[in-house]
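ok so i was messing around last nite and threw this chain in just to see what happens. nothing serious, just curious
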Amino acid sequence: MPEHIVIAVCTAQRPKMLMTCLSSLDRMRIPEGARLSVVVVENDAEAYFKGERADEARARFTIPVAFYHQPRRGIPFARNTALEAALSHDADWIALIDDDERAEPDWIETLLAACRSHNADVGNGPVRRIYEVPAPHWWKSQLLKPRPTGTLITEAPTNNILMSARLVHPDGLRLRFDERLTFGSEDIDFFRRVHAAGGKMIWVDDALVEEDIPASRVTTSRLLSRMHMAATSGTFNMVLREGRTKAARKFIPKSTRRIVIGGLATIIGSLTRPFAKKRGEKLFYYGLIRIMKGAGNLRGLMGRTHNYYDVIDGH
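result:
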């Protein structure tokens, strides 16, 4: 019997981006000895794709698509609903992709071949980011870092993943996303626990997806907010896993250094801008980013959430 690969997509208030994503999945080459289907989880108070609208959406694709609704807002709630949906479809493998991404036609084929040949439980591939407008010159965009396929990894995001269903199956490891991490890092945390439980995770260098970055996501306020959120969630993750005392020992000195150095950098940058505008701005925003990270570390230590994902970028 063919192995069943269920591709899970979580979405909220971005129907156009979702349909573009699903269109790319509909062009997917089906790996030998496998079959494909898709589950979509809408994470919003009201489902957009229901009734006739859901029927019309399904009719556009040859790949089977099932729509689910998770009204409780929060990424881990949506992701866990997606895992349950995939299991209800008797998945052997579960793939994860974001609603603002497009997959290459050989995406699943490449991930599955790598996992089979390396006897891996998880394959994680690269994401090429396509910006609607250029990011500010002072922003360090995340660059693709080539690594040989089969390189062992210890953590991963969920934006380009294929994983064995045994990791989440009731007869397997029964792992789920931590629903306390509603404001980021729930994916990194999940795959760190996969690694800790003995799951083999590998990098798959040629399993590429592309992510569309809307203009609203590269405004100064959103970029700084993202840095604050990442530091907050990363620190809170350590509080949950290793305790507040150990996290405080690590992050109080770190956050203090970040805030002090960041403050000095913003002052020097402000003084430099009238004479060397680009250089001064780069130093100024470098300082602001360090301050945001330091403040985020303190916020995470106190267990306070962040609202970055309350704002929907894109349509």
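not much to say yet. The domain at 3-216 is CATH 3.90.550.10 (Spore Coat Polysaccharide Biosynthesis Protein SpsA; Chain A).
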